Amino acid sequence: MIPLKRRKVTTEQNASHANSAECKFPDVAIFIVERKMGASRKSFLTRLARSKGFLIEESYSSSTTHVVSENNTGDEVEVWIKKQETEGKVSSSSVSLLDISWLTESMARGSPVPIQDRHRLKTSPKPSELTPVIIMKSYACQRRTPLKHHNLFLTEALEVLAENAEFSENEGRSVAFRRSSSVLKALPYIVRTMQDLKGLPCLGDHSLRVIKEILEDGTSSEVESTRQSEQFQAMKALTGVFGVGVRTADRWFREGIRSPLDLIDTGQKLNHAQQAAVSFRLLGVQYYNDLNTPVTKKEAMVISDIVEKAVKAVLPGAIITLTGGFRRGKEVGHDVDFLITHTEEGAEEKLMPKIVNYLENQGLLLYQKTTRNSYLESKDGPARPPSNMDRFERCFSIFRLEQFKVDCDTSVKASLDSSGTTDKNEESYSGSSWRAVRVDLVVSPYSQFAFATLGWTGSKLFERELRRWAGQEKGMSLSSHALYDSKKQCYFRADSEEEIFSHLGLEYIPPSERNA
Ligand code: CTP
Ligand code: MN
Ligand code: MN
Fold it and tell me: Is 474 in the pocket of ligand 1 (CB under 6 A)?
């Protein structure tokens, strides 16, 4: 039975705001959910609350601000609200879903109490809350890409396709897959549905198709058939030979060679000149197992000590920096990269032959090939954009690393045919006193040291993206030697990586987050 004074109001007011004329808190429109509470308790609470000046709505509406319920979970109340909405009663607005305790406390106080966390009904996170809309910049050098990420099951698949594209020298296609993969590496969450990819840059149709298949079926047929294909496997095995690029591997494949072992067999059929030409490749074959066994951080540290000692012996005061993947925090690498300089400009000239000599005399080198620095900075700027190929004094080498007690079980053994032609390699693993390790040494003048550090830290995609950003967005040209402003026709100086990022108008990304 509605009290008399309220009935008067009803005639002039919307039914759902029956008591608003006399309510003391018009901004707090409360709806009490009957579900689980029962009609009689609901009407009791309604009467009591109204008598204390609270605005209690007859029905849930778009003006409702507080939904109060008893013994319901937040999810249950949400379902109930959804139902009201789909029945067309209300369009959704933001309401607070509260426990009855909020209302009883408010009535006891005589006014709405501030909502505290304990008053709110707990609801499970929505997909949109789990995967917050993140702003993903489109250049990898604008993003932070940690080493460990959440989407390895997708990135590995995309990288198989990238690698396969490299094997057929389709660079555009390869880079497209690498860029998609890199975007997934930068995501702070696991991709579970295609919805999770909304608004992300760099994801082309082909990549999206592959991702969709993996999300739906667990694997992508294209990726799996690529992985299984004879050509892919042979190209992977053959390019795994030190000094062998895609061209050579592809020619060998077309000649019927499938593995490094086939190479040894056919190598014997080569004439003298051909043999000389491939000799260093055969050397790669010889150390195939070693060179395809990841170098551990521990081994990298031992090599660091050796290099440091050698460099300091021939040029006291030289600075040696570990670059490449290990500087980015990788646990393993395909090689160990070093950058060497000296604060006194010019002191680093002719340094490489001295280092190599020292190492050779110590019996530490199994192979080395030094290329000279031909970089010259001209006042007019580079005649053509600096190429990706570096022009420092650079030494590709293979170290003979004495096996300190390496835990053999942790070193993943490469899978060379077990027929056993490579006894020496077998030996150098299990029990032999040494193993072969690829080492890259680079010498840079101090004035270029920051550029060289940035350029040799990688990852390769990160470097590629830095150069693309410089060229396309800034009209600049970046190399491991310099940064050149094509418009102003001048070089930028930089003493640190931070300064280079700043010249490029980029936020500084530390090495550990350049794992694009
Ligand atoms: N680099 C280069 N010029 C080359 C070869 C390599 O500038 N001719 C740079 C690459 O861009 C990369 C860095 O050297 O930034 C390291 O290259 P690499 O050793 O091939 O790769 P890592 O990232 O170190 O990976 P891994 O651990 O497999 O060695
Ligand atoms: Mn490396
Ligand atoms: Mn390297």
Answer: no
Please name which of 273, 287, 300 lies closest in space to residue 244, comparing C-alpha atoms.
287
Q: What tokens were used for 332?
A: 């393993």
Residues 198, 50: Cα–Cα separation, whole Å? 47
Is 250 noted as a catalytic residue in this protein?
no
Residues less than 5 Å from ion ligand 2, measured at CB: 324-325, 333, 335, 337
Q: Is the CB of 159 under 6 A from ligand 1?
A: no
Out of 335, 390, 409, 423, the active site residue is: 335
Q: Is 262 a catalytic residue?
A: no
Q: What is the pLDDT of residues 29-84, one digit of tens each?
A: 999 999 999 999 999 999 999 999 999 999 998 889 999 999 999 999 988 888 88
| DSSP type of residue 67 | E
How remote is the CA of residue 448 from the centroid of ligand 1, in Å? 18
CB–CB of 294/334 below 8 Å? Answer: yes
Query: What pLDDT digit, counting tens, does each position of 137-149 carry?
Result: 999 999 999 999 9
For residue 516, the Cα-to-chain-centroid distance in whole angstroms is 5
Considering every ligand atom shown, identify the ligand nearest to the alpha carbon of residue 515 and give its number.
1
State how far the Cα of 451 lies from the Cα of 491, in Å rounded to an integer.
12
Whether 117 sits among the annotated catalytic residues: the reply is: no
Measured in whole angstroms, the distance separating CA 415 from the mean position of its chain's CA atoms is 28
* Helix count and strand count (H, E) for the chain: 21, 14
For the full predicted model, state whether its pTM sits above 0.70.
Answer: yes
| Domains observed in the chain | 4-119 (3.40.50.10190), 140-227 (1.10.150.110), 229-291 (1.10.150.20), 295-412+420-503 (3.30.460.10)
Q: By alpha-carbon position, which residue is closest to atom 25 of ligand 1?
A: 325
* CA–CA separation, 85 and 201 (whole Å): 35
Contact indicator for 433, 402 with CB cutoff of 8 Å: yes
